[in-house]
Structures are given as C-alpha cells and as structure tokens.
Amino acid sequence: xxxxxxxxxxxxxxxxxxxxxxxxxxxxxxxxxxxxxxxxxxxxxxxxxxxxxxxxxxxxxxxxxxxxxxxxxxxxxxxxxxxxxxxxxxxxxxxxxxxxxxxxxxxxxxxxxxxxxxxxxxxxxxxxxxxxxxxxxxxxxxxxxxxxxxxxxxxxxxxxxxxxxxxxxxxxxxxxxxxxxxxxxxxxxxxxxxxxxxxxxxxxxxxxxxxxxxxxxxxxxxxxxxxxxxxxxxxxxxxxxxxxxxxxxxxxxxxxxxxxxxxxxxxxxxxxxxxxxxxxxxxxxxxxxxxxxxxxxxxxxxxxxxxxxxxxxxxxxxxxxxxxxxxxxxxxxxxxxxxxxxxxxxxxxxxxxxxxxxxxxxxxxxxxxxxxxxxxxxxxxxxxxxxxxxxxxxxxxxxxxxxxxxxxxxxxxxxxxxxxxxxxxxxxxxxxxxxxxxxxxxxxxxxxxxxxxxxxxxxxxxxxxxxxxxxxxxxxxxxxxxxxxxxxxxxxxxxxxxxxxxxxxxxxxxxxxxxxxxxxxxxxxxxx
Length: 528
Description:
The chain is of the alpha+beta class. Helices cover 28% and strands 24% of the residues. Strands 17, 20, 21, 22, 23, 24 and 25 form a seven-stranded mixed sheet that branches. Strand 4 and strand 5 (44-48) form a beta hairpin. The radius of gyration is 31 Å and the shape is elongated.
C-alpha cells in the first residue's frame, strides 16, 4: 500500500484544499495520471499519481488538509484494496464507490479551454535571481485582450530587490490571469497569449461555459447561491476582465460560480454576466429597516498591501533574528579631527575633482581595519565559517520603497576617488531600483551610517550569512576630558556594531572597535 499525502506547492504552503477527485473511488490509476485537483493560497494545481494502484480516497472534496497529511491510499491489488476499505473506521461511506463517485466534479474541467492547445501560450512568473521564489506584479503595461508584439514590455514585476520589465516572447492577444498587486510564485501562470482573436475569445469565455450561462433564470439563481459554499475557505481565482466587471457592478466574487480556466475553477467574464442575469431575474427581497443606532465616527484608514521589497525585508529581518545570536555593542569616539579632515577636503573639491562624503571615508576606514579582523569580515554558511581575503562592503542606502544594500567590491583595494565614484553610481541606481541581483549579494560585512539623522546609536539587524554590521551615529559637540586633564568642546560620535555571538566574542569585537577608534581619532592614517 502506498500512502498519498497533501503535497507542498511553494515554500509558504501549509495546507491545501481538495477541489475535486478526477479518479473515482476504487478505480485503477496509473503513474503520472492526474487523479486530484487541489488549491493552495494562490493556485489550482493537478496532482499526478506517483505510482500505479487502486485508489482509496480518505479526504473528501472540499476538505482542507495540512501539508504531509494523508489524503488517499494506493493499493497494489484488489485484495489489498478490499482489505483497506473493509478495515477502515467508516467502511460504509468508503464502500459506496460506484453511485457516489462524484462523476460531476470529475467531468467539470472538460468545458475549459486547454492551456496546451495549439496557438495558446502560457506565461509564467519568471525567476530573476537564484534566490527569487515569488514576484509581485506592479502593473500590466498592456491591456487585457490587446494584441502584443514579441519583445514588447507587457508587465512590470518586483522581486525582493528590484523592479523588472517582462518582455513577451510570443506575439498575440493577451489574457491576464494574475492582476496587478498579486504576488505569484516563480513558475506559476500569470497570463496567456493567443495567436488569434478567436482563440482569445474562447479562452476568456471558458469554452463550453456559455451553455451553463444560458440556463433558465430559475435554475441560475440557486447555482449562484451555492457558490459561497464552494468558495468557502478558498482563494477566488478570476481573470482580470472578470475582476473589473465585478468591481464595476459591486459583485462579491465569492458569490460567483466559476467555469473557466484550465480546470474550470477560474471566474471568467461569462460567469459575471450569468451572475448578473440571475440576479436580475431573482425577486428582490426588501430587508426590514434596522433600528436606528448612533453612528460611530470612522477613522480613515489607508490599506497598503505589504508586498515586494518591503515584504522581503520584513521576512529577512525576522528570519535573521530567529537564526543568529545577535548582540550590539557601542563605543564613543572623538571624531573632531576626522570631520575636520573631511571639511578641508570638501573645501578643496575643485582641486580634487569630487566632493568627499563622510560615508566615503568610513568605507575606506573599514576596508583597512577589517583586513586585520578575519572573524568579523566573515560569513557563516552551513556550519562553515568563510573568512574573506578582501572586504566586500554592503552599504545600506535608503530608498522610498525600502532599504537597498548594494555591495562595494574589494573596498580594501580602492582609492578614495574610486570609492566615491562607485558609491555614487550604486546609490543612484539603488534609489531607482535599477541594481542587478549580483550587485546586491555576496557582501562580507555591512555598514549603515545614520549620522545625518538625529540618531545617536541603534541596534541594526544582521544580514545573514554575514556576522557583523557596523553603524555610525550623529556627531555631537560635547565637553570632553583631554589627555592633560583639561576640558574642551569636542565632536563625539558613537560607533555601534551588531555581531553574531556564535562567531564573534567580546575579545574579537573589542580589538576591532579599538582599531576603529584609533583610525577615526587619527584620520590621516585612513589615507595612508
């Protein structure tokens, strides 16, 4: 006997709902045969048998089952199947195969236009980068039903780091499946392209679905009423055109019976028309007026879907805190001479040919210091500590849609001018979301400078597999005790660093902070 369990389709899937069994109880199935259709939070998916056998169904249609829990069994022989059925806790329901084998659901997908039909090409969410598992559609640049050309940018999508244009690889008529704002797993369907208008019309209408729409009004109304039960606990799948029609007419999509798509579970335009016709034919029921109640003043709330870059940052920050032993240490340095040196360099920018920033000097300083601290200029990957020969510095850059972290490669080998030019280019493209995936990965340590804000220090979160992130707070004029015991006004600045205590102990970190203090209080050696 082979146990069949609810499969996991996507990293975030925790449960699935069985839409329909395509093979009847007690029937013989073959390896590779689609025997069941199920839904996760985003898609409707066929399940193919992994072996031959006689099917004994455990979980019924409409049930929601956790990933990994049994949904059926495959018996190797008729005798084994009979033993399974007779030995179950509820033999009577299992022994009612022939009459109640649910032939209707199994036959329901037939009217839908097949996605593999000649002239209809499936478009899926592309993978942009090795770590990408899902993408969010920012906007469709081509309208539903419009004719698109090969190479035309028809859609803009976001992964965890960038906004990217998708160029169509087949010309034809566009049928949108996933609307703007939807987050779709890599490899899942987002649209279809049909070679001819006739193929497009057939796909949108759901093939033989018009026959159902032409049913008498008296029968259509109960069908619409039954839809909520079918949709209960399920995510509504609808075409872009159907969603527009529903929004225009104020229709709750969970009340509409689907008939389109590859599996007959997607709401198409014809379904909306059928629902409207049924609603118009149904007698109007006037609700009794409710007792007057004092109206509470409602707050105005703007709801913004947490998608794209910010969603990814949130997930990564949470996971970082769950998987590393983070602790933050702070030290105060006298940055008077450091900032005076930078001031003198700014005054000479005409001669130098560029305006030096505080960040340029801090990046150069870390490039020199961290070469002497291999346990900090390191990444912890699969229980292996990788100590890097060069300092690949991830530099935090603020953008409207979230923090971007481009990598300044081999900063320890660069001149101050090279650091300045590279950072200007990376920061500008980061704010425009034009960085390439390779420009945002592979850093060995991170720097975040908040000195331009009224922030003295913080507790930055690690960017795994890195084991350290350095922060620099705002400079503040304060009274300080000089080496000779006198008091003087000095510009003090806090340096704060979060490290992974699995790798970096107090001794290692103390030595590193001591070096940073020395460099900042003797800034001429940064340029040496």
